[in-house]
Amino acid sequence: MKRLAFSILLLLPFAINSMAQSDYKNGYIITNENDTIYGLINNRGYVKNAEECTFKAKQDSETINYSPDMIQAYRFIDGKYYVSKKIKVDEIESQVFLEYLIDGILDIYFYRENEKESYNSGDYYFIDNGDGELQFLNNKSYDVFASVWDNNTDPKTIYRKESKRYIGLLKLMTKDSPTLSKKVDNIKLSHKSLTNLAKEYHEEVCPDDMCIIYEKVEQKIDFKFGPIIDLNMSKLISTIDEFPSWLYYFEGSDFNYSIYPSIGLFCKFDMPTIHEKLYFQFDGVFNKRTYKTTNYWTFPTISHTKVNQITISQNSIKASAHVGYEFSGEKIRLTYLVGGFFNYYIKTDYKRAYSEIWDSDSNIGLSYETNDSPFSKHEYGFSLGLGLIMKNKNDKEMSTTLRYQRGYGLFDMYNFFSTNNLSLSYTLQANK
């Protein structure tokens, strides 16, 4: 079950990722002939949005991919605005779609490329003071070496330091405002800080004209909650080859699969300040599961067999927390979750029925039962999930998620057992 779960959860996203990358929003393009054409534009994230514009006139129309040399600009209605510009970074020139953050005396632009291909963490900012020439706000990092030698080898790198070359350029651009020029010393490269700087500068130097802020309005945290129902299949497995003598009766245990439902509540909220497609989900459920096994141990020289029949019934409250990534999609969206869980057992009914069979006629000799449970009252572990999110006719979100969870801690300090749990979860948003 573990191999199957990992195969599904780890390989499936890569196989269907391309199918999920569509999130069309109302917008328009501006052609090289200055014509404005309205339609739908695919919002594919910072990197893809900078490479091309995927446009279609209507929902059922054929898609057209525009490269930066084919159109002047495109914009999402009441959202991000991208313009075609030639940029030069590290002596390499290219034409891309820059996100237009603010149009004023100082124009600010943003560009993100694949982080693996960048020395600047993939994020680039540019400024234009009205002369039509884009200036790169350079913050290239460099290695700082210490005079520490190890076996006469090269010096070790102690840390990386930001160059902050952009500060000098911003001081030059804001020289007409001594107050703002001083603030530049502590400014960081971010949408908010650069937009605020350009806005304040515009209002101070040219108070009669208004600047235009194109940056997308900061999204409010979207909170959802509602019921969650799980269908679980769980297996209790031993993690050691040989048990200590005081737990000999677990030797060779092969517990049955326990199939049981869970019911509870979930809450979910997105994290737009970190990434527009990330969200956090917490859920708490009540469940009851039962494991059974029968173990035989026979003396090799005499007809004497020890039999242990073990039954474990557990009522628990399980709390799970996940960080999820929600892929784009028009009607159905793929989601991938990573997190952990904590299981608290409010009740454990443990029963071990011991008996001895003395001869080939199966005559039972000594027998007794014990209810002293060796298991702890808690369990914890990691969780992986893969699911689908959609909306019903009432515009409420519902999801179906396949989760794999691996649990530890059933024997407190002793890691004798773990649990493998595969669950199918269904959630339905209750609030609007």
Folded structure, characterized:
With 432 residues, the protein is mostly beta strands. It is built from 5 helices and 22 strands. It has helices spanning 2-20, 46-51, 166-173, 178-183, 191-205; strands at residues 24-31, 36-42, 53-56, 64-66, 71-76, 81-89, 92-103, 107-112, 123-128, 135-136, 141-145, 157-162, 212-213, 223-238, 258-270, 278-298, 305-326, 332-357, 364-370, 378-391, 397-408, 417-428. Strands 1, 2, 3, 4, 5, 6, 7, 8, 9, 10 and 13 form an 11-stranded antiparallel β-sheet that branches. The chain has an 8-stranded antiparallel barrel with strand order 14-15-16-17-18-20-21-22. Strands 11-12 form a two-stranded antiparallel sheet. Strand 18 (332-357) and strand 19 (364-370) form a beta hairpin. The protein starts with a helix and ends with a strand.
List the helices and strands and how they pair.
Blueprint: H1 2-20, E1 24-31, E2 36-42, H2 46-51, E3 53-56, E4 64-66, E5 71-76, E6 81-89, E7 92-103, E8 107-112, E9 123-128, E10 135-136, E11 141-145, E12 157-162, H3 166-173, H4 178-183, H5 191-205, E13 212-213, E14 223-238, E15 258-270, E16 278-298, E17 305-326, E18 332-357, E19 364-370, E20 378-391, E21 397-408, E22 417-428
Antiparallel strand pairs: 1-2, 1-5, 2-3, 3-4, 5-6, 6-7, 7-8, 7-13, 8-9, 9-10, 11-12, 14-15, 14-22, 15-16, 16-17, 17-18, 18-19, 18-20, 20-21, 21-22
Brief rundown of the structure:
Helices cover 12% and strands 51% of the residues. The protein is mainly beta and 432 residues long.
User: Regions with pLDDT < 50 over 5+ consecutive residues?
Assistant: none
Based on Cα principal axes, name the global outline: elongated
Tally the beta strands.
Answer: 22
Characterize the largest beta sheet: strand count, sense, and whether it forms a barrel.
11 strands, antiparallel
Termini distance?
38 Å
